[in-house]
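From the shared-data thread, chain only:
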Amino acid sequence: MAGVWTFSTSPAPLAPTHSASDAMPQVLCSMTPPHARPPAPSDRQATAPTTRLRGRVFRREGEYWTIVFESRLIRLRDGKGLRYLAHLLSHPAEPIRCEDLHSIASWQTSQSARSAERTRVAVTKRIKASVAKIAALHPALAVHLAARVRTGYTCVYLDDAGRRVSWRP
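Structure, as tokens:
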């Protein structure tokens, strides 16, 4: 699926106490997905990108994750927190020990109670940091995840009440 990438550069603002050598240009980039423009009534039948964005997707593609929620697509660079979320989303309502999540994402195992506490804290921080990154690009998904992902010594994704929610990998 192709989108339109937009790049712009802007010099960093100079404070009176900074020298000119401190001014580094900032490069901003964003992607406008092809479905961003609502279809006109005449071309509703031919809008393939919209039909591909139905459902929920949380899929790793190389170093990036493709995430679709409420017909909106975002892409994020890979990180352990996203791997934890992907595993929780693929096992809704199933409590998963944080040590198991950690070993899935980093291929390491924890052994002592002290390391179990460190693992719990690390997993929680990474999940919350990933939800914060998602919030910057897709606030509705961040609200959904914040309300339904529980962290602790066991972590769980609680799907929508009364119905099974499937996330496609």
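The CA atoms of residues 90 and 167 lie 6 Å apart.
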